[in-house]
């Protein structure tokens, strides 16, 4: 995939991590034409929001379907086929080799960009140790990024802290989608590896996922426009 997109709007993904379809629709209406790309994950999908994927796509928006698929190969294949039929632009797969191979096979011939989830931005080295991994986040991310590249994924999801090193490994043609984006001075919440919008772009991220700093703001449109302005300055 070519990640040389034209503007900040192409690179900002607003996370619709809300509790109902009605709330998500209100956010989309409020943000209007200032935002063209949205993320739908488990929270909204399981609250009746999955049909929004096709509806947003039909209205000219793009959708990042964040389902973090991980299952036996046949199940992953069928899930990826369904996501492509829904009209999603991006889909996440946990970066286990068997799951990524199945996903790449299923997405062949479609416009769906597959993203390998490396290590969640809410985790640190202590969390990996508690989960039974005898490695560091840096080393695990590096391994999974190289596997995603070699298997033929369209990109990866990683924290801004790893973006620069990842870009050196995968070159300019794969996407690096970074959650954990927080404007300067904002609360990091449950995220442990965060960066500002400009910092993430400077490090090599192609797309930024921003949720609460926009959806939790009193003036959501103004919050989105402030982030877009910072991104535009960094891109420029």
Low-confidence stretches: 1-5
Mean pLDDT across residues: 91
Which strand order spans the largest sheet, edge to edge or round the barrel? 1-2-3-4-5-6-7-8
Query: First CA to last CA: what distance?
Result: 22 Å
Q: Which structural class best describes the helix and strand composition?
A: alpha/beta
Helix content: 40-55%
- The percent range for strand residues is 15-25%
CATH architecture: Alpha-Beta Barrel
User: Which oligomeric form is depicted?
Assistant: single chain
Summarize the helix and strand pattern as letters.
HEHEHHEHEHEHHEHEHEHH
- Choose one word for the global shape: globular
The Cα radius of gyration reads 17 Å
The major beta sheet can be summarized as: 8 strands, parallel, barrel
How many strands appear in the DSSP assignment?
8
- Number of helical regions: 12
CATH fourth-tier homologous superfamily:
Aldolase class I
Quickly count the domains. 1
CATH class: Alpha Beta
Task: Provide the CATH topology.
Answer: TIM Barrel
Short description:
This protein is an alpha/beta fold and 236 residues long. It has helices spanning 8-11, 21-31, 42-49, 52-58, 73-86, 97-107, 125-130, 137-151, 160-170, 197-203, 212-215, 220-235; strands at residues 12-15, 37-41, 62-69, 90-94, 113-117, 155-157, 175-178, 207-210. It has an eight-stranded parallel β-barrel, surrounded by seven helices.
How would you characterize this protein structure?
The chain is of the alpha/beta class and 236 residues long. It has helices spanning 8-11, 21-31, 42-49, 52-58, 73-86, 97-107, 125-130, 137-151, 160-170, 197-203, 212-215, 220-235, and strands at residues 12-15, 37-41, 62-69, 90-94, 113-117, 155-157, 175-178, 207-210. The protein has a single domain (8-235), classed as TIM Barrel (Alpha-Beta Barrel). The chain contains twelve helices and eight strands. The protein has an eight-stranded parallel β-barrel, surrounded by seven helices. Strand 3 (62-69), helix 5 and strand 4 form a beta-alpha-beta unit. Helix 8 crosses helix 9.
């Amino acid at each position: 995939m070519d990640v040389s997109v034209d503007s900040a709007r192409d690179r900002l993904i607003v996370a619709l991590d809300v509790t109902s379809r009605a709330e998500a629709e209100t956010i989309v209406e409020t943000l209007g034409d200032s935002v063209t790309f949205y993320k739908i994950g488990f929270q909204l999908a399981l609250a009746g929001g999955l049909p929004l994927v096709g509806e947003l796509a039909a209205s000219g928006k793009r959708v990042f379907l964040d389902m973090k698929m991980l299952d036996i190969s046949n199940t992953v294949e069928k899930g990826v086929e369904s996501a492509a039929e829904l009209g999603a632009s991006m889909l996440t797969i946990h970066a286990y080799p068997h799951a990524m191979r199945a996903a790449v096979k299923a997405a062949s011939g479609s416009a769906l960009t597959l993203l390998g989830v490396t290590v969640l931005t809410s985790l640190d080295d202590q969390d990996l140790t508690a989960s039974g991994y005898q490695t560091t986040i840096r080393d695990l991310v590096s391994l999974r990024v190289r596997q995603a590249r070699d298997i033929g994924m369209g990109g990866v999801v990683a924290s801004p802290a790893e973006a620069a090193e990842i870009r050196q490994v995968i070159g300019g043609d794969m996407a690096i989608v970074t959650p954990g984006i927080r404007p300067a001075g904002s609360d990091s919440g449950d995220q442990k590896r965060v960066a500002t919008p400009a910092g993430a772009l400077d490090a090599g991220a192609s797309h930024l996922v921003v949720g609460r700093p926009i959806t939790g703001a009193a003036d959501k449109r103004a919050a989105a426009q402030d982030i877009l302005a910072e991104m535009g300055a960094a891109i420029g």
